[in-house]
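Encode chain A's predicted structure.
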Amino acid sequence: MGIKGYNGNETYQLLLERKEAAAIADEWTERNIQSDLRIRRAKTRGRIVVETKDPVFASYIVQWHPGCKVNIKETDK
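Encoded structure for chain A:
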């Protein structure tokens, strides 16, 4: 009851360093990954937030950069 399941309306926000975010963007373009990707500056100095709605791509990012912080944001649709 207290555990929320996947419903498809989640946005995955990953806090990365600049070089890590650049590597993710390069990987996304080189592989022609069919998912959304939003990159923006974080409030934390020297950090970048990568946002995606694709849980598989988000899990790849966490596997490539295990030290990144992850926030799952519920979106209303």
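The chain is about 30% helix and 30% strand.
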